[in-house]
């Protein structure tokens, strides 16, 4: 069965004013959709058509990896955001952040610095590392923690320009600041519970 562009977990205008409907129309409707279309073209009629997306991310290279990983990353990113998100974390993720970073504010400052300062295009992740501790992890281009053994992804921030250029032009730090208003801590807690 062909890979599908997943339905968004909120309305296209649901993240405004932090991320506009126009950005979602481009980011989801054009960029993410194109990754899915290219991925289907690359796997059609091959053994890779039978693999699940995570397997493709872990085991392929080149254009196939790039499109599979970008499909996985974007699907994860949409769920990392919520119109009712933001604020202080709650539950197990709050306790884990405080234990491993010292405080939520320290984590927020470190994550923001990583996201704003990431050179070029990529992703910044909160992962549960193989040692059981939470870590901030950067990947370039289509990179993914599943691929490089960094741990289990809990949240991500997309720092490709197409994530913020419509709303913030080249001002990535302002986009990262706005991203905190949308962080889906319930999603992070669910991922942590399964990690």
UniProtKB/TrEMBL annotation:
Residues 89-190 form the Manganese/iron superoxide dismutase C-terminal domain. Mn(2+) binds at residues 27, 74, 158, 162. GO terms for molecular function: metal ion binding; superoxide dismutase activity. Its EC number is 1.15.1.1. Its cofactor is Fe cation. The keyword Iron applies. The keyword Oxidoreductase applies. It is an enzyme of class 1 (oxidoreductase). It catalyses: 2 superoxide + 2 H(+) = H2O2 + O2. GO terms for cellular component: cytoplasm. It comes from the Eukaryota. Homodimer. Belongs to the iron/manganese superoxide dismutase family. This is Superoxide dismutase.
